[in-house]
Structure of Hydrogenase:
Amino acid sequence: MEFGAGFWGPIIATGVMLFGVFIGWLILRGSQRITPPRPTKEKITTYACGEESRIEETQASTEQFYSPVRRVFSGFYRYIRPSHSGDLRTYLLWIVSGFVIILIIIVLAWW
């Protein structure tokens, strides 16, 4: 099956994508005006098959959720904890640095 010579116009493709995003945004805004959110107690509670449930029964304990991860990485946490400053810019620097290191590892493994 052959379709012949093709045409690729990056400016046209970008324009079509932006137009699609704009149409999606219009649909989203229109639907929000038509049906405004009306939260009720029934809508925001956890479904428990018709039974009454307390919040303590439905929410997972963060201590139990993160303790296995904390145990596995405890040595790394002890090493990295002194650099914990509470500053968002420092966290962003760590994230970007980690991303660059992972990217370098991927590029080196690819070659």
Q: What stands out?
A: The helical segments are 10-34, 41-44, 55-58, 62-72, 74-80, 88-110. The radius of gyration is 25 Å. The first helix runs from residue 10 to 34. Residues 44 and 51 are 15 Å apart (CA to CA).
